[in-house]
Amino acid sequence: MKSLFSRFAKDESGATAIEYGLIASLISIVAITAFKSVGSGLQTTFNAISGNLQ
Question: Model pTM greater than 0.70?
């Protein structure tokens, strides 16, 4: 029984998966923020172009 708990405590495969999940979520949050910022800027630019064409 003691060796089973010892192996379980030393197993780091789950920790690696959690770390990858945290990294992926951080990257996605940064990407979403950047896309929203770029999207707002593009919308402003296209509205200005549209106004000048009319």
Answer: no
